[in-house]
Specification:
globular, alpha+beta, Collagenase (Catalytic Domain), four-stranded mixed β-sheet, three-stranded mixed β-sheet, disordered N terminus, Neutral endopeptidase, domain 2
Length: 676
């Protein structure tokens, strides 16, 4: 219901503007929904529940979702908008469709035609499944893992990215991979809920092999599970995989063959189209030899079954309903706590966004992201950069040598707002209305070939890896740039009709967070040109790490579910980003006032409105399964702790809400973590 209210609020504002009246914000009279505040909760005891408490009491997670809240509201709104675009395409005659529009409509129609999918059975996938069954050698297993259109998984994943030590060239990066559950802890951790997930996963593997007509499916599923459990034991924990220095291990294929013998590296790389003694970056290097030993020691028959079940998992949305239902029963219900599958039409527009993001994105921004919104966000970013500049010049723990290089990095920073300056050409991608499995495989091959074709060309620093309808944002170390898709630049994060304090507390803090990734525990290892090299004095790095270790200890203390605490090391970068973002955005808000006092609106000061907005954007409620998965495997802490963790370390918050000793989350001034 809340989603409909959000969509109608935006529509109402547009209608009012069309009539010549002053447009109103989507929430309240100046951008915050005051009705959700629970005044029975003291701000210092739990600011997240103070801002959102009344909402939390009544909020219901839709049966087809794993959470609800601000992000999910925008996700649903974006899906509704994409559906509106598709509906317009469906209403046109075929002769009226340009090639990109035809690709969009044909892929949508192919995915939503469940009658045709069920009628085809496994026939569209049979060539791939037969190919796995015919594998006789370990080289053949590696070749199947390497096929960019194969639909299955690999023990090692590779991608093509800018070289961290030379951000002007692309390099092949290899990383550990191959688990069917979200993280190694799901196989190894002593926890009753994870133990239940393990048993459910064994059942899922059995079901998938049974659907594929395998004999003795339960025994074979057990062998696949044991293989993955062995892999989990040697893989790096998620927190360790964040370290930019430890994950930079350049090798040639010849060196990799000697370092991790047992895996047919040449066969794998050849299947990917990677030839010669090209530089490779091996991330979790100490795990690779053990994983290669596991590969060599595992019977080929087990690898055939492993390839099959991972293929069926990947391809389940494109296969008959029995496969799709079985996949949802584990990944949706058991892991996420979801009660129902998303409607097929919703999944279809998500597929379009994933496969044809630029053709769809062009239509999206033309409808839903006016140039005036882009200009206002860019002005806000300008004030954020001014705030960072001012702050870097005066922070007491940074010496002049590091300060100068920090300013150099800041001044080299590039923002990208809304959508790409140049759209990609998808004319080479063949989409067929009657070949959904083929569409999926051709799209994967098209994407890999696109990236492979650029490997010896200059790096495209303007490239987006998110599409305009995406509810997210990111910072790229190699580009020293942030990217903010149009879909997140909506209320409550950004509302062109809202009070400035609200926008700075919302999207300002989020943009400040992303800029702050350039100076977090890992991003700070890259210089202004995006090159992984130290630019800190030892003294400054030590002072920085003293502060961040204190922040990590705070987050270690937060208990998301009974007995399950946030991992301060895993979430460190995001926690630093939040703390940076909230402090810098508040400074930027004061810069925007140009020396004038902030107005008081409905009794709320500018700083109070800023913090209320910050609490509002993180409004959320999770299913237990989804929350457990986030705590174990996600570098972002649960939303409530992002609000609590950032505000309790910000001095202005104490003054704004009269937070005093004795309040649950009060921190004495000397214990507050001050980075910016």
């Amino acid at each position: 219901m809340r989603i409909k209210l959000l969509a109608l609020a935006g529509l109402a504002a547009t209608m009012v503007a069309a009539q010549g009246d002053t447009p109103r914000p989507a929430f309240g009279s100046w951008g915050v929904d005051l009705a959700t505040i629970d005044k029975s909760v003291k701000p210092g005891d739990d600011f997240f529940r103070y801002v959102n408490g009344n909402w939390l009491k009544t909020a219901t997670i839709p049966p087809d979702r794993t959470s609800t809240g601000s992000f999910q509201d925008l996700q649903i709104l974006s899906e509704q908008r994409m559906k509106a675009i598709v509906a317009e395409l469906e209403a046109r005659k075929e002769s009226e469709l340009d090639p990109e529009a035809k690709q969009l409509r044909d892929l949508y129609d192919a995915f939503t035609d469940t009658k045709a999918i069920d009628a085809a059975g496994l026939k569209p996938a049979q060539k791939d499944l037969d190919g796995f069954a015919k594998i006789k050698t370990l080289d053949g297993v590696a070749e199947a893992m390497g096929r960019p259109d194969g639909g299955t998984d690999s023990l090692f994943a590779d991608r093509i990215t800018p070289d961290p030590k030379n951000s002007n060239v692309y390099v092949v990066t290899l990383t550990q991979n191959g688990l069917g559950m979200p993280e190694r802890d799901y196989y190894l951790r002593d926890d009753k809920n994870l133990a239940a997930a393990r048993e459910a996963y064994r059942t899922y593997l059995t079901t998938m092999l049974t659907l594929a007509a395998a004999k003795d499916a339960a025994s074979r599923a057990g062998a696949v599970y044991d293989l993955e459990a062995a892999m989990a034991k040697v893989e790096w924990p998620a927190a360790n995989r964040r370290d930019a220095d430890k994950t930079y291990n350049p090798m040639t294929p010849t060196e990799l063959e000697k370092f991790a013998p047992g895996f047919p590296w040449r066969a794998f790389l050849k299947a990917q189209g990677i030839a010669g003694e090209r530089k490779l970056i091996v991330r979790e290097n100490s795990a690779f030899p053990d994983m290669a030993k596991i590969f060599a020691a595992t019977p080929i028959a087990v690898w055939r079954d492993w390839l099959t079940v991972h293929y069926l998992h990947t391809m389940s949305p494109y296969l008959p309903t029995s496969f799709d239902d079985a996949d949802f029963a584990f990944y949706g219900k058991v892991l996420g706590g979801q009660e129902q599958k998303l409607p097929r039409e919703t999944r279809a527009v998500r597929l379009l966004d994933n496969v044809l993001g630029h053709p769809l994105g062009k239509l999206y921004v033309a409808r839903y992201f006016p140039p005036s919104s882009k200009a206002k966000v860019e002005a806000l970013v300008g004030n954020l950069l001014k705030a960072y500049d001012t702050d870097i010049r005066v922070i007491p723990w940074m010496t002049d040598a590091t300060r100068k290089k920090a300013l150099d990095k800041l001044h080299a920073f590039t923002p990208h707002i809304g959508y790409p300056d140049k759209w990609r050409d998808y004319s080479g991608l063949v989409i067929k209305r009657d070949d959904l499995v083929g569409d999926r495989e051709r799209s994967e091959k098209f994407e890999w070939d696109y990236r492979l074709s650029r490997i010896d060309r200059p790096v495209d620093r303007s490239e987006w890896i998110m599409t305009p309808p995406t509810i997210n944002a990111y910072y790229t170390q190699s580009f020293n740039s942030i990217f903010f898709p149009a879909a997140i630049l909506q209320p409550p994060f950004f509302d062109p009709n809202a009070d400035d304090a609200v926008n700075y507390g919302g999207i300002g803090a989020v943009i400040g967070h992303e800029i702050g990734h350039g100076f977090d525990d890992q991003g700070s290892k890259y210089d202004g040109a995006g090159i992984l090299q130290s630019w800190w004095t030892d003294e400054d790095r030590k002072a920085f790490e003293t502060r961040t270790s204190s922040l990590g200890a705070q987050f270690d203390s937060y208990e998301g579910l009974p007995g399950l605490h946030v991992n301060g090391k895993l979430t460190m970068g995001e926690n630093i980003g939040d703390l940076s973002g909230i402090n810098i955005a508040l400074q930027a808000y004061h810069i925007s006032l140009e020396g004038k006092p902030s107005p008081v609106l409905d009794g709320w000061t500018g700083d109070q409105r800023f913090f209320l907005s910050y609490g509002q954007i993180w409004r959320s409620k999770y299913r237990d399964g989804a929350l457990r998965q986030q705590i174990i495997s996600n570098p972002h802490a649960p939303a409530e702790f992002r609000v609590i963790g950032a505000t309790r370390n910000t001095d202005a918050w104490y003054k704004a809400f009269d937070v005093k000793p004795g309040d649950k989350y009060y921190l004495p001034p000397e214990q507050r973590v001050h980075i910016w």
